[in-house]
Write a structure and sequence with these properties.
338 residues; binds iron/sulfur cluster; alpha/beta; nine-stranded mixed sheet
């Protein structure tokens, strides 16, 4: 990324952070899904299919306009594999047109010099690629050996910030792979982060001593800002719950391919309201709602957004944040759950 562009991006980010600290009444980050389809089939993933069509551009533009109307600061396009959407560049342009920061999460497979130059032109500002291992195996083909050529292209042509995320825990076969991935990222002048994940059954278990040691080494090599923001990971690495206030549904929004707002990729269906109908009343209710999944949550970006408001506005259990008029719905939900 050119230095002048990097400085401009950092200044815009600083502006958005100040605005988020001054006012709690707008989303900071939205994940937007333009396509559920993916070219891969990672063994741990429940966020893809192999058949669905891309969401039409005019619908995507309307969703982006609504996010702009709500005052959203950053929109990150995710999937499935969003690079498979035929009008991804127009989607990015629309995000920029509405004055928001444009980010992308991709598995990296579709990057060619020509495609990277088009993304530069469209105005992409952030890219994150997660690399799971060095050699592909039956669980994941997001592998350093397969993607290294793509990383070299990005290093040469990308005029946007590139972050490479590696993972540790969750029974990943070779924890030392995270070190190789982070070293390669640093060599190519990308930033690097590491995600701590749960075991396959979702339980919180401490990392093994070897995994902990590698986790600390990778963290030291990484982006200092991210390391500072991700201290929740130290609790997760120890297998301990972490106490924080998740502001999903308000400061963080996850918008699926059907245009519904969910807390996040792991908690779909809450609140499950169409983005076009999403109001500040919905925003306020979710802002105040305590999330039962928070103590064991590993979603880095939602934690980072949460830091802005962790010190203010305590939350309440879901039933208590509903207006009185919907008390009947709450009772109905409790009875159905019973
Ligand atoms: S590349 Fe991403 S979306 Fe596709 S299967 Fe793997 S984890 Fe899921
Ligand atoms: S705590 Fe984590 S899993 Fe639960 S809603 Fe928030 S982001 Fe999603």
């Amino acid at each position: 990324m050119r230095k002048s562009k990097f400085v401009k991006l950092k200044l815009r980010e600083a502006g958005f952070i100040s605005r988020a600290l001054l006012s709690t009444r707008h989303p900071v980050l939205a994940h937007l899904i333009p396509m559920r389809r993916c070219n891969l089939a990672c063994g741990y993933c429940n966020e893809y299919d192999h058949t669905s069509s891309p969401v039409p551009l005019d619908i995507m533009k309307r969703r982006i306009d609504k996010l702009g109307f709500l005052g959203t600061s950053i929109v990150t396009i995710s999937g499935g594999e969003p690079m498979m959407h035929p009008q991804l560049d127009d989607i990015i342009r629309q995000i920029r047109l509405r004055g928001m920061i444009a980010g992308l999460i991709s598995n990296g497979y579709y990057f060619t010099p020509e495609r990277i130059k088009r993304l530069n032109k469209a105005g992409l500002e952030y890219l994150q690629i997660s690399i799971d291992n060095v050699e592909p195996d039956e669980v994941s083909r997001k592998s350093l050996r397969v993607l290294d050529k793509k990383l070299r292209y990005l290093s040469e042509y990308a005029d946007f910030h590139v972050n490479i995320n590696s993972v540790i825990g969750g029974g990943i076969k070779n924890p030392e792979d995270a070190l190789s991935v982070a070293r390669r990222a640093v060599e190519l002048k990308f930033s690097t982060t590491v995600g701590v994940i749960h075991d396959g059954d979702g339980t919180l278990k401490p990392l093994s001593p070897k995994e902990k040691d590698i986790f600390q080494q990778v963290k030291k090599m990484g982006n200092k800002d991210h390391a500072r923001l991700n201290w929740f990971q130290d609790s997760i690495a120890e297998g301990k719950p972490y106490n924080w206030r998740c502001r999903a549904g308000a400061r963080y929004l996850y918008i699926c391919e059907d245009g519904l707002v969910h807390w996040c990729s792991q908690q779909k269906g809450y609140p499950g309201i169409p983005l076009q109908d999403y109001s500040m009343a919905d925003f306020d209710r979710e802002y105040k709602t305590e999330k039962w999944c928070a103590p064991t949550c590993t979603l880095q970006c939602v934690h980072q957004v949460g830091i802005l408001d962790n010190w203010r506005d305590p939350q309440q259990a879901p039933g208590l944040t509903k207006p009185e008029s919907s008390l009947k719905d709450t009772i109905h939900e409790v009875l159905s759950a019973e």
